Amino acid sequence: MSTQPSPSRRLTPLKRPLNLRETVLEQLRTAIITGEIAEGALVSAPTLGQALGVSATPVREAMMDLAREGLVETIKNKGFRITTMTDKELDDLAAIRLLIEPPSMPAAVGRISEEGFDELERMADACLVAAETEDLQEYLRYDREFHHFVLTHIDNPQLTELATSLRTRTRLYGLKALAQTGRLGPSAHEHHELIRLLRNGDGAGAEQLMRAHIGHARTAWATGTVDADPADAPIS
Question: Closest Cα partner for 182 from 220, 147, 208?
Fold first, then answer.
Protein backbone atom coordinates (compact mmCIF):
# COMPACT_ATOMS: atom_id res chain seq x y z
CA MET A 1 0.00 0.00 0.00
CA SER A 2 1.48 3.33 -1.05
CA THR A 3 1.73 6.12 1.45
CA GLN A 4 0.42 9.56 0.68
CA PRO A 5 2.37 12.70 1.61
CA SER A 6 0.98 14.62 4.55
CA PRO A 7 -1.06 17.74 3.78
CA SER A 8 1.82 19.90 5.03
CA ARG A 9 3.99 18.41 2.28
CA ARG A 10 1.41 18.96 -0.47
CA LEU A 11 0.52 22.55 0.29
CA THR A 12 2.63 25.66 -0.01
CA PRO A 13 3.11 27.29 3.42
CA LEU A 14 1.23 30.55 3.80
CA LYS A 15 3.14 33.69 4.66
CA ARG A 16 1.95 35.62 7.70
CA PRO A 17 1.09 39.07 6.37
CA LEU A 18 3.28 41.88 7.65
CA ASN A 19 2.41 45.53 8.00
CA LEU A 20 4.62 48.15 6.36
CA ARG A 21 6.79 48.75 9.40
CA GLU A 22 7.35 45.01 9.91
CA THR A 23 8.15 44.55 6.22
CA VAL A 24 10.71 47.35 6.28
CA LEU A 25 12.19 46.02 9.51
CA GLU A 26 12.56 42.48 8.17
CA GLN A 27 14.12 43.68 4.91
CA LEU A 28 16.64 45.93 6.63
CA ARG A 29 17.48 43.31 9.26
CA THR A 30 18.09 40.74 6.53
CA ALA A 31 20.27 43.16 4.55
CA ILE A 32 22.45 43.75 7.61
CA ILE A 33 22.68 40.13 8.77
CA THR A 34 23.62 38.90 5.28
CA GLY A 35 26.03 41.77 4.60
CA GLU A 36 24.04 43.36 1.79
CA ILE A 37 24.45 46.58 3.77
CA ALA A 38 28.10 46.55 4.78
CA GLU A 39 29.44 46.83 8.30
CA GLY A 40 30.41 50.37 9.17
CA ALA A 41 28.20 51.88 6.48
CA LEU A 42 26.55 55.19 7.37
CA VAL A 43 22.97 55.29 6.11
CA SER A 44 20.05 57.67 6.41
CA ALA A 45 16.33 57.00 6.69
CA PRO A 46 15.46 59.16 3.62
CA THR A 47 18.04 57.38 1.43
CA LEU A 48 16.95 53.93 2.54
CA GLY A 49 13.30 54.91 2.16
CA GLN A 50 13.93 56.01 -1.41
CA ALA A 51 15.64 52.70 -2.17
CA LEU A 52 12.74 50.75 -0.64
CA GLY A 53 10.05 52.94 -2.20
CA VAL A 54 8.63 54.09 1.14
CA SER A 55 8.74 57.25 3.21
CA ALA A 56 11.47 57.89 5.76
CA THR A 57 9.12 57.35 8.71
CA PRO A 58 8.80 53.53 8.68
CA VAL A 59 12.51 53.28 7.91
CA ARG A 60 13.41 55.47 10.86
CA GLU A 61 11.12 53.44 13.14
CA ALA A 62 12.67 50.20 11.89
CA MET A 63 16.20 51.51 12.39
CA MET A 64 15.38 52.43 15.97
CA ASP A 65 14.25 48.84 16.51
CA LEU A 66 17.50 47.60 14.95
CA ALA A 67 19.46 49.93 17.22
CA ARG A 68 17.84 48.25 20.23
CA GLU A 69 18.83 44.90 18.74
CA GLY A 70 22.44 46.05 18.42
CA LEU A 71 22.60 45.90 14.63
CA VAL A 72 22.93 49.66 14.11
CA GLU A 73 23.88 52.71 16.17
CA THR A 74 22.43 56.17 15.87
CA ILE A 75 24.75 58.96 14.73
CA LYS A 76 23.44 62.38 15.73
CA ASN A 77 22.45 64.56 12.77
CA LYS A 78 23.79 61.97 10.32
CA GLY A 79 21.68 58.83 10.48
CA PHE A 80 22.64 55.31 11.43
CA ARG A 81 25.85 53.32 11.25
CA ILE A 82 25.84 49.55 10.77
CA THR A 83 27.66 48.06 13.74
CA THR A 84 30.84 46.13 13.10
CA MET A 85 31.20 42.59 14.45
CA THR A 86 34.69 41.13 14.74
CA ASP A 87 35.32 37.40 14.42
CA LYS A 88 36.01 37.35 18.16
CA GLU A 89 32.67 38.97 18.90
CA LEU A 90 30.84 36.49 16.66
CA ASP A 91 32.71 33.62 18.30
CA ASP A 92 31.65 34.97 21.69
CA LEU A 93 28.00 35.15 20.58
CA ALA A 94 28.15 31.56 19.35
CA ALA A 95 29.80 30.42 22.60
CA ILE A 96 27.03 31.99 24.68
CA ARG A 97 24.37 30.46 22.47
CA LEU A 98 25.99 27.04 22.88
CA LEU A 99 25.85 27.47 26.63
CA ILE A 100 22.13 28.23 26.79
CA GLU A 101 20.26 26.87 23.74
CA PRO A 102 21.32 23.21 23.34
CA PRO A 103 21.08 22.37 27.08
CA SER A 104 17.55 23.80 27.03
CA MET A 105 16.25 21.28 24.50
CA PRO A 106 15.60 18.43 26.98
CA ALA A 107 13.42 20.82 29.01
CA ALA A 108 11.11 21.24 26.00
CA VAL A 109 10.44 17.51 25.76
CA GLY A 110 6.90 16.65 26.77
CA ARG A 111 5.80 20.29 26.91
CA ILE A 112 4.83 20.88 23.28
CA SER A 113 1.23 20.10 22.38
CA GLU A 114 0.11 18.56 19.11
CA GLU A 115 -1.12 22.00 18.06
CA GLY A 116 2.33 23.32 18.93
CA PHE A 117 4.01 20.68 16.80
CA ASP A 118 1.65 21.54 13.94
CA GLU A 119 2.75 25.17 14.22
CA LEU A 120 6.42 24.13 14.25
CA GLU A 121 5.83 22.00 11.15
CA ARG A 122 4.28 24.99 9.41
CA MET A 123 7.24 27.21 10.22
CA ALA A 124 9.75 24.50 9.29
CA ASP A 125 7.99 24.00 5.93
CA ALA A 126 8.00 27.74 5.29
CA CYS A 127 11.69 27.96 6.18
CA LEU A 128 12.50 25.14 3.75
CA VAL A 129 10.50 26.76 0.95
CA ALA A 130 12.33 30.03 1.56
CA ALA A 131 15.69 28.27 1.45
CA GLU A 132 14.86 26.52 -1.81
CA THR A 133 13.57 29.72 -3.43
CA GLU A 134 16.52 31.80 -2.13
CA ASP A 135 14.22 34.07 -0.13
CA LEU A 136 16.64 34.97 2.65
CA GLN A 137 14.27 37.42 4.31
CA GLU A 138 11.63 34.74 4.83
CA TYR A 139 14.26 32.14 5.72
CA LEU A 140 15.68 34.26 8.54
CA ARG A 141 12.24 35.28 9.71
CA TYR A 142 10.88 31.75 10.01
CA ASP A 143 14.16 30.39 11.41
CA ARG A 144 14.01 33.00 14.17
CA GLU A 145 10.31 32.39 14.87
CA PHE A 146 10.78 28.60 14.87
CA HIS A 147 13.52 28.59 17.48
CA HIS A 148 11.80 31.25 19.58
CA PHE A 149 8.63 29.15 19.62
CA VAL A 150 10.55 26.04 20.74
CA LEU A 151 12.21 27.97 23.55
CA THR A 152 8.90 29.37 24.82
CA HIS A 153 8.13 25.84 26.03
CA ILE A 154 11.00 25.66 28.52
CA ASP A 155 9.24 28.17 30.82
CA ASN A 156 12.19 30.57 31.07
CA PRO A 157 11.20 33.84 29.37
CA GLN A 158 14.53 35.53 30.11
CA LEU A 159 16.51 32.74 28.47
CA THR A 160 14.14 32.77 25.50
CA GLU A 161 14.56 36.52 25.07
CA LEU A 162 18.35 36.36 25.39
CA ALA A 163 18.71 33.46 22.93
CA THR A 164 16.49 35.19 20.37
CA SER A 165 18.46 38.41 20.75
CA LEU A 166 21.78 36.62 20.22
CA ARG A 167 20.40 34.83 17.15
CA THR A 168 19.26 38.18 15.69
CA ARG A 169 22.67 39.78 16.20
CA THR A 170 24.59 36.97 14.49
CA ARG A 171 25.93 37.89 11.04
CA LEU A 172 25.47 35.28 8.30
CA TYR A 173 27.37 36.66 5.32
CA GLY A 174 27.61 33.29 3.59
CA LEU A 175 23.87 32.61 3.54
CA LYS A 176 23.31 33.99 0.03
CA ALA A 177 26.08 31.86 -1.46
CA LEU A 178 24.70 28.73 0.18
CA ALA A 179 21.20 29.46 -1.12
CA GLN A 180 22.48 30.06 -4.63
CA THR A 181 24.38 26.76 -4.64
CA GLY A 182 21.43 24.79 -3.26
CA ARG A 183 23.09 24.03 0.07
CA LEU A 184 20.75 26.01 2.30
CA GLY A 185 17.87 23.58 1.80
CA PRO A 186 19.61 20.65 3.54
CA SER A 187 20.38 22.90 6.49
CA ALA A 188 16.74 23.97 6.65
CA HIS A 189 15.78 20.29 6.99
CA GLU A 190 17.32 20.39 10.46
CA HIS A 191 14.15 22.09 11.68
CA HIS A 192 12.13 19.02 10.72
CA GLU A 193 14.72 16.77 12.35
CA LEU A 194 14.48 18.77 15.58
CA ILE A 195 10.70 18.37 15.54
CA ARG A 196 11.10 14.61 15.11
CA LEU A 197 13.52 14.37 18.02
CA LEU A 198 11.29 16.43 20.32
CA ARG A 199 8.21 14.43 19.33
CA ASN A 200 10.07 11.21 20.17
CA GLY A 201 11.19 12.52 23.54
CA ASP A 202 14.86 12.45 22.53
CA GLY A 203 16.16 15.42 24.51
CA ALA A 204 19.79 14.36 24.14
CA GLY A 205 19.46 14.08 20.38
CA ALA A 206 17.75 17.48 20.21
CA GLU A 207 20.58 19.00 22.24
CA GLN A 208 23.19 17.48 19.93
CA LEU A 209 21.37 18.72 16.85
CA MET A 210 21.15 22.25 18.25
CA ARG A 211 24.91 22.26 18.84
CA ALA A 212 25.46 21.42 15.18
CA HIS A 213 22.85 23.97 14.09
CA ILE A 214 24.57 26.79 15.99
CA GLY A 215 27.94 25.60 14.70
CA HIS A 216 26.77 26.31 11.18
CA ALA A 217 26.39 29.97 12.07
CA ARG A 218 30.14 30.24 12.58
CA THR A 219 31.20 28.08 9.61
CA ALA A 220 29.36 27.77 6.32
CA TRP A 221 26.55 30.21 7.12
CA ALA A 222 29.08 32.85 8.11
CA THR A 223 31.53 32.41 5.23
CA GLY A 224 29.65 30.77 2.39
CA THR A 225 32.45 28.23 2.06
CA VAL A 226 30.53 25.22 0.81
CA ASP A 227 33.31 22.74 1.54
CA ALA A 228 33.23 23.77 5.19
CA ASP A 229 29.50 23.20 5.55
CA PRO A 230 28.94 20.65 8.35
CA ALA A 231 25.29 20.18 7.34
CA ASP A 232 26.14 16.88 5.66
CA ALA A 233 27.52 15.43 8.88
CA PRO A 234 25.22 12.70 10.22
CA ILE A 235 23.40 13.29 13.49
CA SER A 236 23.87 10.17 15.59
Answer: 220
Q: Which residues pair with 80 in a beta bridge?
A: 43, 74
Contact 207, 103 (CB under 8 A): yes
Of residues 209, 184, 25, 236, the one with CA closest to residue 102: 209
pTM, two decimals, is: 0.84
Q: Cα torsion for 55, 58, 63, 68, to the nearest 10°?
A: 170
Say if 192 falls within a structural domain: yes
Asked if residue 42 belongs to a domain, the reply is yes
DSSP state of 146: H
pLDDT in tens, 185-208: 988 999 999 999 999 999 999 999
The C-alpha R_g of the chain, in whole angstroms, comes to: 18
Q: For residue 189, is it within any domain?
A: yes
| Residues 49-86 pLDDT 10s | 999 999 999 999 999 999 999 999 999 989 999 999 99
Total of domains in the chain: 2
Q: What is the CATH number of the domain that holds 207?
A: 1.20.120.530
Q: How far apart are CA 83 and CA 37, in angstroms?
A: 11
